[in-house]
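Exercise: predict the fold of this chain.
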Amino acid sequence: MMRIKKHDMVIVITGRDKGKRGQVLEVDVDKNLVKVSGVGIVTKHYKARRQGEASSIKKHESFIHISNVMLVSPTDSNACRVNFKVLEDGSKVRVCNRTKQTV
C-alpha cells in the first residue's frame, strides 16, 4: 500500500518548489514518482509536423520523487508522516503519525 495516493493533498518539502501545496494528479508506483498540480512545471516545445499545424510552447507538470512530498493532514492542514493500521475487519488504513487519525 502506498503512503501517497492519487487525489491526496501534499506539500513539497524540498527542491525549487519547496512550500507549495497541490493535489496529486498521478502516481508512478514502479519508479516512486508523483505528479502534483502546480509543481514541477516544465516547458515543452512542440514542432509543427503537418501542413496547417502550428508549432507551440506548452507548460505542464512533470514527475517529482515521492520522497520530496509529504501528505497534508486533513484535520489541521499541516504536513504529517503516514503509518498504517490494520482494523478489526482486516482492512488496512493510513494513519497520520502525529494526530493518530485515519487519512
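Check your answer against the key: The first strand starts at residue 9 and ends at 12.
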